[in-house]
Amino acid sequence: MGIYPTREALRVAEERGLDLVEIAPQANPPVCRLLDYGKFLYELQRRERDARRAQKQIEVKEIQIRPKTADHDIQVKLNRARKFLAEGAKVRVRVRFRGREHTHPELGDELMDRVMSEMRDVAVVESQPKMEGSALIMLLSPAKKTEPTKAE
Q1: Domain 6-53 adopts which CATH fold?
Q2: What is the pTM assigned to this prediction?
Q3: Phi, psi (rounded to 5 degrees) for 24
């Protein structure tokens, strides 16, 4: 390795069957390197692919309830939502209105308030309840676990 003028560097690269690649064009003089460019691109793509695999995908699970859903059935749905949150997934709570139920949106608000109060220990409200079409939707995300501190 050494410092070569451009023409000399191109000749050396050709002799070795490599490519002359500019690494730092802003430097004075610009910095170039002799390497197999195809192999370099392949390794770069492989590193990016491995990095994508290592990323954790956040899932959004959904529970659907209706304003007339019975108390026990709501409790079953909330237990399922607790399980989803414990696994690290976000939970979308959807209250669906059908027919004449549209005239009583306050029932949906009361239901959402109940869900918020019962899930307060394991979830944080990420987006407040809002009407989208014929459904009232709220998004919950897992609460951050706080480590108990030792008093010494």
Answers
A1: Ubiquitin-like (UB roll) (3.10.20)
A2: 0.59
A3: -130, 90
